[in-house]
Amino acid sequence: MGYSIAIDGPAGAGKSTIARLTAEELGMIYIDTGAMYRAVAYYFVKNGLCAEDEEAARKACKNINIDVTYENGAQQIILNGENITSGLRNEEIGKMASGVAKIGCIREKLVDIQRKLAKKADVIMDGRDIGTRVLPDADIKIYLTAGVAVRAKRRYDELTAKNISCDIKEIEKDIEKRDYEDMHRAISPLKRADDALLIDTSDMSICQVVDKLKTIYGERKNG
């Protein structure tokens, strides 16, 4: 079993960016579990499926194969033999991802993949239920969060930087809705593990958060 750091938190808290940069600094492998759920969402959107149709979801589960590879240290998501990494970050996929994350067979399939990855190497894994469900025995557990308005502004800035027209108020509403759905879903709801350290990134820069995680790692590893 490799050394593992589990990072959980709501959408827009900076989990993926922080986990990726920290992994680079510590020489660990970064595993973006959210991208795996987005890959399933991509399949659903592409095939016109509805996350609420349980029978269709069960059939789809049997036809979905997801692999994780790395190119120049960056995680690549392979869905049924196709690299779909570049197509995972639009709003439609993000909204569908919250829906497919509620499907039991999908979660079981992806959790199994994630645990196998963690056994092979030292990893930093981020998502919604890493410390509570996927890696309950992780060496370090972090719960990253930030205020809704802060997270909405971050997403707004990200989209406008790409010349994508958007409404910050609508983004804020979407984030509030996703938070509620993630925290109230029947299967593996988003919550802070009892032994997870809480880090509110609202007033912190990316570098400050990464430095804090590196400090925590050093204290735990050498303590």
Model description:
The protein is an alpha/beta fold and 223 residues long. The protein has a single domain (4-222), classed as P-loop containing nucleotide triphosphate hydrolases (Rossmann fold, 3-Layer(aba) Sandwich), CATH 3.40.50. The chain contains nine helices and eight strands. It has helices at residues 15-26, 33-46, 54-63, 91-100, 104-120, 130-134, 148-161, 168-184, 206-222, and strands at 4-8, 29-32, 66-71, 74-79, 82-83, 123-127, 140-145, 197-200. The strands form two sheets. A five-stranded parallel β-sheet has the order 2-6-1-7-8, with helices on both faces. Strands 3-4-5 form a three-stranded antiparallel β-sheet, covered by helices on one side. Helix 1 crosses helix 9 and helix 2 (33-46) packs across helix 4. The longest helix is centred in the middle third of the chain and has 17 residues, at 104-120. The chain is globular, with a radius of gyration of 17 Å. The chain starts with a strand and ends with a helix.
The CATH homology group name = P-loop containing nucleotide triphosphate hydrolases
> Gap between N and C termini, in Å?
20 Å
Query: Could you list the spans in which at least 5 consecutive residues all have pLDDT below 50?
Result: none
User: In the CATH hierarchy, what is the class?
Assistant: Alpha Beta
Strand content: 15-25%
Q: Which structural class do the helices and strands define? A: alpha/beta
Shape: globular
Give the ordered list of helices and strands: EHEHHEEEHHEHEHHEH
Number of strands: 8
Give the oligomeric state. Answer: single chain
Q: How are the strands ordered across the major sheet?
A: 2-6-1-7-8
What is the arithmetic mean of pLDDT? 91
Please state the CA-atom Rg, rounded to the nearest Å.
17 Å
Task: Supply the number of helical segments.
Answer: 9
Please tell me the total number of domains.
Answer: 1
CATH architecture: 3-Layer(aba) Sandwich
Largest sheet features: 5 strands, parallel
In the CATH hierarchy, the third-tier topology is known as Rossmann fold
The share of residues in helices is 40-55%
